[in-house]
Amino acid sequence: MEQFETEIAIPETLPLLPVRDIVVFPYMVLPLYVGRDQSVESVNEALAEDRLIFLACQKDPTDEEPDPEDIFVVGTVAVILRMLKMPDGRIKLLVQGVKRGKIKSHLDSDTGYRVNIEEINDIEEQENPELEALLRHIKEQLTKAVSLGKPMLPDLLAVIESIEEAGKLADIIVSNLGLKVEEAQEVLELEDSMDRLKKVGEFLTREISILEVQQKIMNDARGEIDKSQKEYFLREQLKAIRKELGEEDDFMVEMDEYRKKIKKCKMPKKVNEEAMKQLDRLTKMHGDSAEATVARTYLDWMIDVPWSKSTKDELNIKEAKKILDEDHYGLDEVKDRILDFLALRKLKKDIKSPILCFSGPPGVGKTSLGMSIARAMGRKYVRMSLGGVRDEAEIRGHRRTYIGALPGKIIQGMKTAGSNNPVFMLDEIDKLGSDFRGDPSSALLEVLDPVQNVNYVDHYLGVPLDLTNVMFITTANYLDPIPPALKDRMEIINIPGYTEEEKVQISEKYLIPRQKSDNGLDDYTVKFSRKTISSLISGYTMESGLRNLERTIGTVCRKIGRKIAEGEKKKTFLVTEKSLEKYLGPEKFISDEELKDNEVGTATGLAWTPSGGDVLYIECAKFKGKGVLNVTGQLGDVMK
Known about the structure:
Elements: E1 13-19, E2 29-34, H1 37-48, E3 52-57, E4 74-85, E5 91-107, E6 113-119, H2 129-147, H3 154-162, H4 166-174, H5 181-188, H6 193-221, H7 227-245, H8 250-265, H9 269-283, H10 290-304, H11 317-327, H12 332-347, E7 356-359, H13 366-377, E8 381-385, H14 393-396, H15 409-417, E9 423-427, H16 440-447, E10 456-457, E11 464-465, E12 471-476, H17 484-488, E13 491-494, H18 500-518, E14 525-528, H19 530-540, H20 547-565, E15 572-575, H21 577-584, E16 602-609, E17 612-619, H22 635-639
Parallel strand pairs: 1-3, 7-12, 7-13, 8-9, 9-12, 14-15
Antiparallel strand pairs: 1-6, 2-5, 3-4, 4-5, 5-6, 10-11, 16-17
């Protein structure tokens, strides 16, 4: 710290430099950056005269052109020690406070600011026990603050230890405490040095309290410090500092973010009121409490539900028909129903979406048909499997009183879709269960009723959600297990098994090209004749759907791929009826034509399934009996 050997003569008028966010004290050395035109002129005037300038803090730091009433009256006369012009036009100064002063009047100037000032002389107390005690107390307080972690230069501490004047000690300490502008200005304006030193003692006591809290947090966190505890410690430390500085903390910033997101969601009036009510409750809680976590999760779900977001329907009937025909062969009844709905949607915008139920054996394309419908309509697609669902809460959600509560799968699906009008596939509705946790099929009654689902209420959210724009599609293998009340709400569309001719067409258009691609045969020509496909269907598969047929075609493709990997040079492979046995082994199913003749050791029976009936051929043995009917093998179970 530079000191002046002689007393500086201070003139009555000086250039004024308004400073922001800092109060300059006597004996204080600090750098200043000057950029405003009038301030630069004031600096130039000071440099042209005796390098003295009056530094006063402005009340509003954002004010670019402060008026006289916007500047504090009491300031500090300072001497410019060094000056450096910056490349961007600003000036960097190194100044040292010399003496406290008061603005008597502002002088008119065509260039920079200029003021008429009056020096303020310290009212020093005579040496007495009270002054000595106060000086010792302040120095001890400062030493304690430094020991608790207050940053202070060692050279400065040595200088402070040697000071015996109350005013000088107060000025040097207060300039290094980092006080707010209002507090520092209050100290600067006190003329009595004892009063000034007492005020500094109050600020030192407060600073020590903050440092002790900081030290306590540090000691508490030192026991088992891992990543989460370190983060907690830093948050608590930041919170304590911000509380003392009167700044807004992260929790309130987070609450403002929630408020903006809720407004952006454009929720219905009742929903918005509930969301704002929960947000108000959250603002009154401690940010790290368990209740606050529950409230945050609830608000996150409320924000994520697409209350007002929707996708625009593609109402081009010809294009939709083209997409449906591309993805599926046959299924004319289903395609007609979808095209009818799109045509009605084009004529009447507010028509309610139908609740369709695709019923049929496994493998006929019920689930994949839902994806095609979504693509044809330009809607988002969500699939939810109901197989094995036994808990009603999985559909309608848990109440928020339970730990780990979540909304039901309907709300979760809507969040995943991100729109309020997706195609929602409820798969395997015939496999719903029920037990002591409730009946999920009853919970679906409201969801799948076009009249009731305008106000669907999930137990977790507790507010109504309009599901009338959602196109629900359900699938089932059998209609019998579906409760009558639930079945009544759906439009049943039966998808029967495919005929052999349809299977041949589907194999040529979809299955063979897909399996070639999946098994790395895109660069090779693999041909199946129609007779080969028919033999493959009748001799190696027996099903209503297409899953086993596609798997069998995949087996043939893998065998061909193995040949290529072993060094086969051919680019074209023709799969014939004769080569099927080489790829797949002997036929697994014998055609009915070959079993028409009576055979020794064979009896016939009849079987019925929802997919169709069949004739059973059972091997049997004839022997002399005792007049008693004996059922052997599995025939009894089959006939049941």
